[in-house]
Specification:
Length: 156
């Protein structure tokens, strides 16, 4: 009987430890990439969505004027094993003044009806329908300005 109690306690402690590790790991992986325009250069990010899917975001300067936060940036969002999509944004005085040259490719499935729009000086969205076998859903890539940060995430 004592062995059974000890085994139960040990099992419970191991489960608590595993759950704590899993919750800490999930909390450390952000859902959006925050590119610091003042730092510039090429910045890489690993993200995780609420379903646990891992994505990679790369934001890089294409050309930059002398003033901070002025220039063009390439935004690439890769949903690993499914699709990669992105576009270029032109930023002036911490505002998105243009979004252009959308691109996409698929590892599996297909992308339908891609559309790039600049909704305001704070946000640009590449929207599309991702179809894999019999399942289709609307998704895409969102880039928005917040101060001197360019924030990139997946369109929901």
């Amino acid at each position: 009987m004592k062995v059974l109690k000890k085994s139960s306690v040990v099992f419970a402690m191991i489960m608590v430890l595993i759950l704590n590790i899993m919750s800490v790991s999930a909390a450390e992986v952000p859902k959006e990439a925050v590119y610091d325009l003042e730092k510039g250069g090429t910045q890489h990010f690993i993200l995780q969505d609420e379903d646990g899917n891992i994505t990679e975001v790369v934001i890089e300067e294409v050309n930059t004027n002398a003033r901070i936060a002025n220039g063009s940036y390439k935004v690439s969002y890769k949903n690993i094993g499914a699709w990669e999509a992105g576009f270029y944004v032109e930023i002036s005085s911490n505002k998105i003044v243009n979004a252009y040259s959308p691109f996409y490719s698929v590892a599996t499935g297909s992308i339908l009806a891609p559309s790039l729009t600049r909704n305001s000086t704070e946000e640009a969205i590449l929207s599309f329908i991702y179809k894999q076998v019999a399942i289709s859903y609307s998704t895409g890539v969102v880039a928005r300005m917040s101060g001197t940060d360019l924030i990139v995430g997946q369109k929901e």
